[in-house]
Amino acid sequence: MILAESPDQPQSILKSMSQLAPTPVQSKQQPDHLFDYPQRTPPAAGATFEIAPGVHWLRMPLPFALDHINLWLLEDGDGWSIVDCGIGNDVTRDLWEQVFATRLGGKPVKRVIVTHYHPDHAGLAGWLTKKFAVPLVMAQGEYMMAHLVHEGLAGTSNEALLSLFRRNGLDEDRISQLATRGNHYARMVPDLPGSFIRIMDGEVLAINGRGWRMIAGYGHAPEHAALYCESLGVLISGDMVLPRISTNVGVWGINPEGNPLKQFLESLGHYLDLPQDTLVLPSHGLPFRSMHARIAQLQEHHRLRLAELQEACIEARSAAQVLTTLFRRELDIHQTFFAMGEAMAHLHYLLVEGRVTREKDAGGVLRYRSV
Fold it and tell me: What CATH code is assigned to 13-370?
């Protein structure tokens, strides 16, 4: 999850939309005094911590600069519901086995809920559902996208993405480096269930006698499912609201003319309807309160980045040319993958708003010019 880096916003994070796993690029914002962190020490690997009644926090490692993901175990009557899975590697499987042996009290897993299709969330969905012979609960857009990306179908293929990057000015040297990566998603998500139970926006899951309402979010993923329990005052926010990093919003090969940043900013407004003291359980970072203040930070962050980008386009520039405007450090090839998606997302937002125009140069590269 990346956002543009600037002098007043030194930290941002690159988060996978499709084929690669998260890699940070530093980003901003968050004076800690604005937020209440009820538990500042995360659970050790293989352990859990009850962060709210019946809601247990566990953390799995990730082999990237963004080195962890938070997962959730919900007490569910005579069993448990799992929310998100971790990536599909032996380390994560072994830690899950440790949790099953020591933390479930002999009760079975009853279902696996996945907030969205990205590999750190869906990586072990196939293994977990098979191990316990339980259903996968997921939004349809996320389930279908997971299968598309896993198989490299339609515009999710590496070839479609590289064609998009080439049209947006990325040089052939970096194109060649990206071409060697192949389908990294399938390596981190080795198996996906062949069926699922669909969850839709506004639908309520009954878990342990409490209702968890699905709040769909867009822009980061096709149909991201956050879960809100009013009786507990808890939001499992997934990647939609994070305390210290900003969510990746990118344009990708399957939807090359998309405006995901507009979708993301509109989605943030849905969470403003929840109480300010809601306990937010994010996929990365620490659980926190003061969600409204965090959303205001994110909105301002994007406003500043868009203004800076518009100013940079006084002379016509491609997405590849504005990477140095949005990111104040050298990007490796892995980070460039996500940075290109972010740059296109911000340029498309400006284009739709009428703040830039777009033209194609003699070589077929798309360039944007401020109005």
Answer: 3.60.15.10
Q: Select from 132, 140, 144, 45 the least CA-distant residue to 95.
A: 45
Look up residue 294 and give its two tokens.
């965090």
3-state secondary structure of 118: coil
Q: Residue 97: its pLDDT value, please?
A: 98
Q: Strand, coil or helix: what is 112? A: strand
> Going by DSSP bridges, is the β-strand pair 197-198/136-138 parallel, antiparallel, or unpaired?
parallel
pLDDT for 345 beyond 70: yes
pTM of the model: 0.91
Which secondary structure element, helix H or strand E, spans residue 99, and what is its range? helix 90-102
Number of neighbouring beta carbons within 10 Å of residue 335: 20
| E strands present in 95-223 | 109-113, 136-138, 197-198, 204-207, 210-217
DSSP single-letter state for residue 279: E
Specify the 3-state DSSP secondary structure of 215: strand
**Confidence band, pLDDT 50/70/90 cuts, at residue 32:** low
Nearest to 109 by CA among 137, 87, 86, 78: 78
Q: How far is CA 209 from CA 56, 164, 206, 314, 341, in A?
A: 16, 48, 6, 57, 41
Mapped onto helix, strand or coil, the DSSP state of residue 246 is coil
Q: Tell me: the pLDDT tens digits for 102-144?
A: 999 999 999 999 999 999 999 999 999 999 999 999 999 999 9
Question: Lowest-confidence range among 25-34, 124-133, 242-251, 317-326?
Answer: 25-34
Residue ranges of domains in the chain: 13-370
For residues 204 and 354, give the distance between their C-alpha atoms in angstroms, rounded to a whole number.
39
